[in-house]
């Protein structure tokens, strides 16, 4: 089988995995396994050398070697071969490295399995197109030989025509030959596979006769094809002079002329494009890996041997042609090898057998590549049609599609016309092979240790550079379009393709780079100017807090976002970690909600201990959560926000499964929500202790309430622009930056208040919330002399902080009077008892429910129109743990019926007026 065998092999279920319903019994399976083991008995010669030589010795060696020498001269021809074989040698080194890095199944699956589905799938499509175009190219080569031999012939009785000639007649001949290849591929591809050795014997015999003919055939005059003298300016004959130095000297330098088959003026690039098609086929040996007795031994030796043999053969044939044939013969008779052969029909046999064999091989290979891509479901159902097979397993739909595309390519009409496209496709594929090896080398993956070590990242880079340079030299437009097309395919697979377990080289590269940059991210260099919100959101049951999870995803902007969960229990006595089975469900939920978050689960004997563990161990270096977000502790019954919804969960095993089981839709595997009256895993004292623990550990704290009422689609849909103007119903974000339970006019500039302002500003800077408007409420007493002064200071501070907000003054004399009456006339606004960070302790012994309810009513009174979310100041918990229930009760009264609300306490400086 030639290089054009499947890039993604269609036997994707040959590895371990779930057994189908009709699987044979174990004894029968063991027998088949032994048969497969005995079937892998091909050695270096039959398994690698012969397939590679057969795929490289095709139409070019018989019909285009004279064309290359006649146009480019011997010197530039040698340079072309050196460039081409430099590229394929660098690629062969990469192929041998990848193919000897562990066992491979039959078929050329190394690129896809080495690079992952996004790269492997995109390269697979390019390889498919290259095979389709190559199949058409070889058919056109056969048609050219047929027309040259049986078109217009000149004999003793004058010219006579056997077959009609012309564009449409040539198209008819090509269509007929391609249809015959299609029939064979459709009903008897196994027959062709068994005949490859016979074809190789024929091709080898013809090549030997060609070399012998240069030495035994006497000088003669060759009649040129009539089509080569169409302009009437050339002679009808040319000379085969035998070995003469004068002839060699005349063929040393280039002499680019018009190609008589296409009418186009030739150049170095166009001649190289034609010549390079004779150098493809180097992946034939690796594609036979599943049938080799020792692939790691056979592939490197066999492939390198085939490359050396073809390099010597091509250069020797070019030298003999330049030494014995004048320029006229080389430029105007592409089938001159038959004219000077000891038995001319033998060359025709070689042309027909090698070209038809290569065309059929390309067509079979293209269909298998397409079938494998459809089996892997990389394009989310776009290739479902190509997945259809016959009862015998033959992918007839893929064969049909490949044949139709090859038929479309035949309309190009001439071999030299499509040679550039085929060359660019193969160069791009070879560049991808080198990229695969380079990426594996750069990723420093411990399991990338191929037995073939005659390569370095330098050879991979040189191979990539050589491929890209020659692509743009051949045709810059085609090269640019093909690269862009491949990148688009990559992105398409990235977003539409399912998750696979092939191993993503992108993940290995990302890990390598992230580790390096995490080490460079020095926590000692942190500065307030570049502060980011890094959140750990504790989730009891994801079913009841999807709205909060989506909101925090917006709030964190470009910071770290971690979803934490504590499962109660101890690992002692358990057979395995119970969290492993649920981790995939959490990741599937993250994908379903389209949020950018990590998942960190832990097992502990209490929720408090679990939260402590997560705060201690989550993150690396400077990438650690600085803010803990908790759901509010109240008596509200949680609502199941995932009820009736399905989440896409990956269901791949160690091998790719059939498309029907690649993905399955199933309800998320999370426990049902707690019903009203059911006991909680967390008690009031423990909940407040979690808050206190976080503050002791230097973490900011956020309590989120009523986010089961939050609908992101409804809120953000109202804030969009309509007719270029901001909609009147743009969402509001209300800020109450004063500690409402400890009235102090100077509280607007403490660390916690500035933290509230920063969070609201960050939320408004996200794209989704860019239309939201901030409303900042300044609570003052009507008779207070500081009213005007404080408002001016607040507006100046907002200006310095570059925060745009509507400042609304709220007179709360009646409310604050309740506080001071309860306090018994103590000094107002005093700063006694403040903590080191400037925040006052929680005065729970001085508060009444009447005062807190009045504050709550004040907030609701100034909430028109209803804001999307409110930001409130969260006081510190009391130092006395006996007052924790009172603290929680006061927070409940403060935030009751306010809608989606964040109670926030910040302890780290986050804003600066200098940048």
UniProtKB/TrEMBL annotation:
Gene3D superfamilies per UniProt: Amino acid/polyamine transporter I (1.20.1740.10)
Residue intervals passing through the bilayer: 42-67, 79-104, 125-147, 167-189, 196-218, 263-284, 304-323, 394-412, 418-440, 452-471, 477-497
Keywords assigned: Membrane, Transmembrane, Transmembrane helix, Transport
Record-level GO BP terms: cell volume homeostasis; chloride ion homeostasis; potassium ion homeostasis
Compartments (UniProt record): Membrane
Domain SLC12A transporter C-terminal: 556-635
Gene Ontology, cellular component aspect: membrane
Annotated Amino acid permease/ SLC12A domain residues: 47-536
Gene Ontology molecular function: potassium:chloride symporter activity
Region (Disordered): 1-36, 826-845
Compositionally skewed regions (Pro residues) per UniProt: 17-26
Pfam family, one: AA_permease
Topological category with respect to the lipid bilayer: Multi-pass membrane protein
Family from the record: Belongs to the SLC12A transporter family.
Protein name: Solute carrier family 12 member 9
Annotated organism of origin: Takifugu rubripes
Gene symbol of the encoding locus: LOC101061687
